[in-house]
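Thread title: Can someone regenerate the structure for this chain?

I was given the following input by a collaborator and told the matching structure tokens would be attached. They weren't. Posting the sequence so someone can regenerate them.
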Amino acid sequence: MSSSAQPLPLDGITVVAVEQAVAAPFATRQLADLGARVIKVERPDGGDFARGYDTAAGGLASHFVWCNRGKESVAVDLKDPRGLDVVHRLVAGADVFVQNLAQGAAARLGLDAASLCAAHDRLVAVDISGYGPDGPYAHRRAYDMLVQCEAGLVSVTGTPGQPVKAGIPAADIAAGMYAFSGVLAALLRRSATGRGGPVEVSMLDALAEWMGHPLHHGMHGGEAPARTGLAHAVIAPYDAYGTADGERLLLSVQNDREWRRLAGQVLGRPELADDPDFATNAARTANRERTDAVVGAALARLKGEEARARLDAAGIACARLNTVADVAAHPQLAARERWREVSTPVGALRALLPPIGLPGGAPTPMGAVPALGEHTDATLRALGMTGEQIAALRRDGVIAGTAPSGGPDRS
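Best answer:
Regenerated them for you:
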């Protein structure tokens, strides 16, 4: 880092996370990307269960690689009083604590936000749950797809005949991002008041907020938007259309001025600009099938490259329907040098830089993905434990992780 570069915003902040799956790990990875030290507490017998979701990332689970770079893994058994004591000692020296255990589990361990903040004035403690701490759904199991259903996302996603879930864990990501921003807000408040405090995020609350457009449309307009596949419920043309060489292009006409340009410069049908069946968005939406037929027929005569060139020249927004492989090779990501290599237990893997850019600051750490319990011994030594004490915990199954070579330290 040059002498003039700004430090990472969370440099010097320590986060302890008792986390699993996606929501909390995704939140704390954002904190690690901004320079925080994140100590991830995992079960000794397998760790975060997301480690076992698949083996697609070079033998590691793709969810785990995505959400856990830049963290230190400490494997301790919270059901053993000695393991729980380790976590409480870590929390005592931390700035932030994050947990997304099953409802009620954190409170039984004294690791809920209310208990921890009562004991530690400066601590910011985050409880992430499925449905919140109270109400009739509080103790229901809450997995991503279940919350997508409860929040109504599935009802507005898919085709007229088939609702579908989002292809990404939308509820987990929503909760993780609100937890991340909640931590930043609480740390900012602490800098002014000297006090931390609890942060509460539920997956249902987060995803229901993301449902704002269909909710307001349905509550105040009397009818929720229909499922329309790739089409837009209230804008036309706004859909994907095939080209002569098999590409599929999604184009979006946002206003009637754009429709005039599309009709004249791309479709070759300038008379449609003033045709009362097409001249306004309301008319085009009411005549959606005819609108799509006109646009589809014109693009079907063009190869993809030519169609994109005409649309760009006319100022019409368009996009290719990329596959995952296309995204991995996307020319825009390559041109902006968004890819880095991240160390993992199976070697280096490609990963994207985080979306938050801080020009003029220290580079994003992009730290390694930890092996289970990789940092257990070093962390316990930092708490003042001797090699013999650590070895005893390992013998009793209270901790996991590879013991350092050379035998236990008897200091």
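Residues 405-411 have pLDDT under 50 and may be disordered.
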